[in-house]
Design brief:
The chain is mainly β and 188 residues long. It has strands at residues 2-3, 12-15, 18-28, 36-43, 49-55, 59-62, 65-76, 79-84, 90-93, 109-115, 121-125, 129-137, 150-155, 160-164, 172-176, 181-186.
């Protein structure tokens, strides 16, 4: 049995007959009282994000999780279609179980988390960074480099990000998938 001292980002726990994944947490002490642990949790069944506060030292039920590699094939109206790289089985994942799925392109490898005891899908983790081609952006003004100005751009998959003025259509850019922020231009 784990306690609140074991809470970390990505930990899966059982709470109120639901399996929840810790997205964010913060430990704090108020005056002379006992400490508290504030958490932001994402439900694996509904996809909703809730906030919950635990007393410091409170027992929590940790869920044993298995991580398996899958390949993203395509997206349709039902969700994202993934293929197991060992057995070649395909299944569809609802869009609310993948954070920032708009940054996925066909053939990308993703980690799928399963509840080890129940064999149920918990969540899908995409890579921390991806390299995508810019499909549309307005041309930048020549000589406008005095400030760190950004312009909107559309990348493969339809996601819209903000890029520096020197980026053009067809350029490959590295993107942080957690924030959706431009990181750098990649040489072809």
């Amino acid at each position: 049995m784990a306690t609140t001292a074991d809470i970390r980002n990505g930990l899966c726990i059982e709470l109120n007959n639901d399996t929840l994944r810790v997205i964010d947490f913060q430990k704090f002490q108020v005056g002379r009282g006992s400490g508290k642990v504030w958490t932001k949790l994402k439900s694996s069944t509904t996809g909703r994000v809730i906030e919950h506060t635990f007393q410091s030292g409170q027992a929590i039920t940790e869920v044993r999780v298995e991580r398996r590699k899958f390949q993203f094939l395509y997206q349709d109206e039902d969700g994202y279609v993934l293929m197991n790289q060992e057995t070649f089985d395909q299944f569809t994942v609802p869009t609310d179980l993948i954070d920032n799925g708009k940054f996925l392109k066909e053939g990308d490898a993703v980690d799928v988390l399963f509840h080890a005891a129940k064999e149920t899908l918990l969540s899908v983790e995409i890579p921390a960074t991806v390299v995508l081609a810019i499909t549309y952006t307005e041309p930048g003004l020549r000589g406008d480099t005095a400030t760190n100005t950004l312009k909107p751009a559309t990348v493969e998959g339809g996601a819209e990000i903000r890029v520096p003025l020197f980026c053009e259509e067809g350029d490959l850019v590295k993107i942080d998938t957690t924030t959706g922020a431009y990181m750098e231009r990649v040489k072809k």
